[in-house]
Amino acid sequence: MKRILESTLFLLLGVALSTACSDDTTDPVSGSEDRIGPVVTFPETTDRKIIVNEPVTFEATVEEATSCAWYVDDEPVAATPTLTYTFRSAGTYVLRFEAIGKEGRTEYSFVVRAADPLRVSFAPAADTQITCNQGEPIAVAATVTSGDNGVQHKWSVGDKVVGTEAELQYAFPDPGTFTLRYEATNADALTAEAQWPVTVIEVEQPLTIEFTPAPKTTIRCETGASVTIETDVKHGAKGLVHAWTVDGVKVSDAATFRHAFTAPGTYAVAYEGKNAKQEGVTAAWTVEATHLFADFEALAALPADIEDSNKALSLVENPFPTATNPSATVLMNKLGGWTTSGMFKLLLSDVADRGAYSTLRVKVYLGTNLYYPYIYAGDYALPTTVNGETYASEAEWRKVVRTNDWNVLVYDLKREISADTNLGAVTELQFRPLSNWDHSNFVYTGDPVTDNRTVYFDDIEFLK
Ligand SMILES: [Ca+2]
């Protein structure tokens, strides 16, 4: 009776195998079917690793046998039920046990894998005392000298994993004494570990402050809205005095800047902090206060001051979110198959101080449509710049307009609408996006590529 026990190897030996396991575990020897060999059993061993050059014992329990033998790759290695054997090199071996009784023969075969031990050396060596300054990185390198088979490294301090590469670079953020631990696991489920005592010396840190939003950024707000800048003092807070200025005039000595910009314009916001040691931190921002007519976010319906002349407007999820306009909600102007300018109107009579606004800025998604997005308030106007570029002809327009992204259009109201009063005299500003170059209405052609009759608007702003 012969049995090949590949599939029970995990139970018996607990070793990860590189060979495939067979479902067919019995294979009677020909010519011996009528005779019954001794009963052989093996202990169940669930966690057993076979490592090169380390003796390993295999035990069989045999009932009523006249002789027995163990073979490794068909070489006889023992004539007893217990085999203690040392594999000398990594690889896969066939281990066979054979018991002969009066009535016949029983044979079991196992496929076993012997793995090289996992050994790792370190620089500096494990258990070496490491002393470093707070915030200055230390370097410890692990080199796998044996068992380099899918090794995964893990460096930790307490519960925190601080590295997963062979070479660790880590700066301890706080002073104190710590234990740096290293653990490795390879594909043979072998492990290695090491540790180092670490003493971190406290370093007095200079005044360090983090700001939200980050300095050197432009903060845009609606005129009248309050702007907030938060400080987070990381080091050197003792005796810290804050000072915030707007256009050079001190407005606050609080840790958090909160200031309402009541008039449209561009403002310089500056911070200066000084601690008891007279260490200083300075930072600066630009605030752009505009009359933001609509960004369409969080609106349940069209704003009342937009007149939907063609009954074509709706608020939709931005179908083309890009870096130019990542906004969630935009205004869709979906026109039917008729000849139209796609007109809608901004009703401005209740906007205070309209004469302060000389510029209209708006984002438009035109796609491949050959539309020229005119505005009209007593006269027609095309944008002065498209995506920051000027143009002097239809051909130049096609070069600066984006067909696969949002376009930022800037209209010079002072030049195009009213040189004297900016937006002052305008109570109704028309958008006519489906216009021809000569500002006549676009004629519907039904071309699905260039004439889908839908344009999108967002972030309609009036600038000083
Ligand atoms: Ca929006």
Give a brief rundown of this model.
The protein contains three helices and 36 strands.
How many strands, which pairing sense, and closed or not: the largest β-sheet?
A: 11 strands, mixed
Q: Please report the total strand number as a whole number.
A: 36
How helix-rich are the residues, as a percent range?
under 10%
CATH topology of the largest domain, what is it called? Jelly Rolls
Shape: elongated
Strand content: over 45%
Using only CA atoms, what is the Rg?
A: 40 Å
Q: So how many helices?
A: 3
Average residue pLDDT: 88
CATH class placement of the largest domain: Mainly Beta
Bound molecules: calcium ion
Class derived from helix and strand content:
mainly beta
CATH architecture of the largest domain: Sandwich
Ranges where pLDDT stays below 50 over 5 or more residues in a row are 4-34
- Total domains: 4
Structure description:
This protein has 464 residues and is mainly beta. It folds into 4 domains: 2-114, Immunoglobulin-like; 119-201, Immunoglobulins (Immunoglobulin-like, Sandwich), CATH 2.60.40.10; 208-290, Sandwich (Immunoglobulin-like); 295-463, Jelly Rolls (Sandwich). Helix content is 3%, strand content 47%. It is built from 3 helices and 36 strands. Strands 19, 21, 22, 24, 25, 27, 28, 30, 33, 34 and 36 form an 11-stranded mixed β-sheet that branches. It has a 5-stranded mixed β-sheet with strand order 1-9-8-5-6, with no helix packed on it. Strand 31 (372-376) and strand 32 (380-381) form a beta hairpin. The longest helix is centred in the C-terminal third of the chain and has 7 residues, at 394-400. The radius of gyration is 40 Å and the shape is elongated. Bound molecules: calcium ion (CA). Calcium ion is lined by residues 295-297, 327, 329-330, 458. Residues 295-297, 327, 329-330, 458 line the site of calcium ion.
